[in-house]
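Work package 3, deliverable 3.1, input record:
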Amino acid sequence: MMKVGYIQFHPLFGEVDYNRTHTLELIHQRADADLLVLPELCTTGYLFTDKTELERLAEFIPEGKSTKAWIKIAKETNTYLVAGICEKTKDGKFYNSSVLIGPEGYIDTYRKIHLFNTEKNFFSPGNGPFKIYDIGIAKLGMIICFDWAFPELTRILALNGAEIICHPSNLVLSFAQKVMLARSIENRVYTITANRIGDDIRPSSKLIFTGESQVTSPKMEILLKASVDKEEIGVVEIDPLLAQNKMITANNHIFLDRRVELYQPIINHNELEK
Amino acid sequence: MMKVGYIQFHPLFGEVDYNRTHTLELIHQRADADLLVLPELCTTGYLFTDKTELERLAEFIPEGKSTKAWIKIAKETNTYLVAGICEKTKDGKFYNSSVLIGPEGYIDTYRKIHLFNTEKNFFSPGNGPFKIYDIGIAKLGMIICFDWAFPELTRILALNGAEIICHPSNLVLSFAQKVMLARSIENRVYTITANRIGDDIRPSSKLIFTGESQVTSPKMEILLKASVDKEEIGVVEIDPLLAQNKMITANNHIFLDRRVELYQPIINHNELEK
């Protein structure tokens, strides 16, 4: 058994020091948790309007201040953290990333592979591979926000052994939460969606984020669900072993029953582009 | 625009003549529909207990009485029909199948590829391929009941051009309806789930089927939903062209945004069996 959960809060756009400090306060409040997931881009806010903002607000991983602060608190609280962060690299690229950090220090970064809407103007897409992290008490996989829409990614993470899908998000609609329930049962995994709340009000645009962070189970249960607009930390005890049991009935193994030999589209991906 | 829907009713186990006649009465009631989907195994009932029952109740396709009756009514009413039927073949096999029949006659049969629980004791699994049927006003794909749990199948049908997924079902839980909503948005397709109601009470077992037949849209709307226990025909007008538009945002094509080159599990299917 382990305690897992989400931290739902309102990052202020551009206020990286405030946001980082606030995540540390919130993590401290649930130092009893084994795993906490924080929202996408939770140090910067979401609604970038030009690349100079990215240059100013993005951080190196793991040398940046936020990753270093999370490494410190993960050690102090003996907690694993998955947190969305705006990453910059030495070769001048920017990624919409999530870091996995544990009591033992920095572990790895996942760079979002399915960029949403205008994110394509600012971020480079990640290029995998999709890794699984065995943290001893469970095996974790990471996806970010709009990755929810692509069943292939969570499927592969689950096939590779992920028991818990960590899902930092900045959602404005409520599709993802419903689809993550489908991801849970079709792969028999837990999912933790950590969404933000509040708005990003920028000179030319505005977005309101809609909370409802949630934890779902391999049996398609919603174990925890947050409000649409309140800062909330949700923590629930789960048994990761349940996600190793892929029998959806006495006679159906949800992976071995796949008819992989038949899963060939007639039309290939390249033809779609014509 | 076209009128599509489901016929939700209570097939009586083993009463093939009654069940067939009843489907004809119900189809006649909505002769204005362009496409009607009927439940899985709707001529026989679901809960087979031995193979002699299958031998007695299954039908050849298209020479069997049920397919012939549906061919006749499809012509009379100018309606396309998708109906679940217990199929037998000349080589002594049985399939959990669905037939597609139109005003022009018998079109094709889909044999369920993901057999549920004890169905494995009675039916051979289908072996594809997964075909798409262009009926002029729309392109159709077929899946049956537990196929809902495998995102690959609906994904492939949609990649191959299906605008409407026809889904004859015999559901006892309510997972499938929620997951079919996910199938709708992740593929931007319509889905029509035709579930049955009532119970199959057999010497050694009993199942209660739970209705809630539904039609969902590419925007993840529930356009129509039936009760859990009433005989109902639901028909709604839809625009199949909406399912050709795969742009989920101005910058996201739900198929072209797939990162097919990255979708490779590390663990292969065979290794799972060890």
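The longest strand of chain A covers residues 80-88.
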